[in-house]
Amino acid sequence: MNLSFLRVSIWVYLAIFFLYLLGPLVIMSVTAFNSSAFPRMTPWECLTFQWFGELFQDQRILNGIKNSLIIGAGTVVLSVAMGLAGALMLTQIWPKLRATYYTIIIAPILIPGVVLGISTLVFWDRINRMLGLGADSVLSNGIFLTVIGQSTFIASYCMLVLVARLQRYDVALTEAALDLGATHAQAFRKILLPFMRPAIASAAVLAFLASFENYNTTTFTFGEYPTLTIELAQKVRYGITPSISALAFIIVALTVFFALLNEAKLKRQELVAAARKNATVEELAGKIKLPSFFAGNVAAMLVVIFAAATITVVGTATAYSPDQCIANVKEQKQLEADQRIQELRKQREERRKQREADEAEQGETQSAPKPSNNSGFGNVFAPNALSGDEDESNAEPQPSTNGGFGGAFDPNSLKTDE
Amino acid sequence: MPRFLKEFFNRNGTGMGLAILGLVIFWTIGLIILPQLSMLDFSFRPNLPPPEIGGPKDVYTLENYKYLIYGPEGGSQDYNAVDLRVFFRTLVAAVCVTIFNLILCYPIAYYLGQSKGSHIRIFAIMLIIPYWINEILRAFALRIIFGETGVLNTLFVGLGVFDTPFDFIRNDIALYAGLGYAYILLMIFPMYNVIESLDGNQIEAARDLGAPWWRIHWRVVIPYAKPGISSGCTMVFMLSAGALAAPQILGGPSSLWFTQLIYQQFNDNNDWPQGAAYAIVLLVTCILFVLAVMRLFKVNMGDIGK
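Structure tokens for the assembled complex are given below, as produced in the milestone run.
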């Protein structure tokens, strides 16, 4: 087995894998711009922006976004706080308890979200009843329950992120601060928190995203405050429209934008660090010439291209009107339908003529009192045999020709005395 | 006061110590342990209207669990065939999804973990982006693709593979593809983390000693990556057995997922104790299954989540 074959197959595999991963998102985004009322890519009808307009007028979606933001903010605060406390506890806990404690705080990641939602609902409902509060108390409020239910497992994610950085923290720093007369709260705020800030930021972003997209837990706890995800699920389950694609496109675009922005920032930090390292003493003493933001930074360039493309698209969207194209497509469809009707009519006409000719022929050859169809199976297999629209054309009293063998066994053909 | 508590307060100060302890206790006991126990307790109770709760009829009963096995009392069948079939189908399908994901993701994790270069970061971003998109929207995207007039059917009918559109949704292909799709990242990351720390020299040594590529994987990489593989498989199995969104959106009309039964008990039948019992059955079965498989492959619990 030679190496080049392996290499090619690896690249083919990577291509297929990322096609599976990203293809659905691309196709979904594209359907947001097709004027077809059902989200689809083929057949392509018209480029349109109407689904975005529809999306922004959908009161339920807007309300869902509002609820999601409120719940997301609550979840971020609660789960980062609990995650930080949990991480601090993990570094200090009595060694014998450590394994048990770790299992407990990591378990919510593995417990199915459905189970977490149910247990939250059942437990707080019971507390509510024990306290003798009514059905409209804070404890049975949808926002409260959702924040609590989501924080149960999101705090575990936060704890994992935070503990990774906490392990690199030198406890001697806090001790030094305490020796110098700081209170514990001051040492925490001025020494530990600044050290933890990057991890807290990523934990907060992670918590917000996890809260925003959560469905399994929220679906049991949301009460009267449906989040965006809940609204989306209901829409998707009971009929899908391209305005959902439009929303998906916005989310995909935002995600890609922020991912690139973050990457550009990281890359720049790296480049700056590299420039510092390679700088000569004079350069360091004088003004160090830092690389500009775009030099050798692919991600930064992509960010700019992306922003420009967005502006162009939005600009076109305000000026562009797909009405003409939609009218054309409608006309086209109308034409097609007309044509089909015409064809059907023509076929029917031809068939009728044929039959009349047959009948005329029969009328000449057979002197049967009533003309009947003598073709093998009568008219039963003629497409129009069951439709009633022939009644006008065949208005003359005609015996039914539904006998299995046409007119051969037709009782009427024997009734000569009529 | 126990000694370690005193030490804890000495180290953190009373105020900070109380805050940390309070939050941890609220989280572990108030949010994790008590709700699960409460649900367990609830699942052994009959479904009563609110005024009768705590009354004489509120006694412990096995009724809800019996219902899963035997069906409604006086029913025509000996066993609750519908629910049991859904339950086992869910477990088997979750195992299949896990194996599919493992086979799909192992080469990617190995490639990402063992190759160097700046393109790895681009791949990492491409991996993470789909994971940031809403779960519902990901399922929706697959539904567009697998629908009767979707991209795949248009393609296949256009190429002449099928004469008529193939119903991917009714045949559950869309569902399995969707479940696999949803948890790819959770399978790749634990494996990637482990494989990244594998010394490339070990692989080279094996190659120099004449091992073919498949034996290198079988004898060197896979044994080393076992903790990562088991973490990934555990997560994917638990999450796909407990998935709700993908089956609701991508599942065919006749094929239910066990979580959908739980959902129906809660929202349509309004029978909370029954739903809680089903949830307990799902949770306990999944945990036991994971533990059994881990014992079979000789993996330690402590390796999970590393």
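The two ends of chain A are 93 Å apart (CA to CA). Chain A has a mean pLDDT of 77. Further analysis is deferred to the final report.
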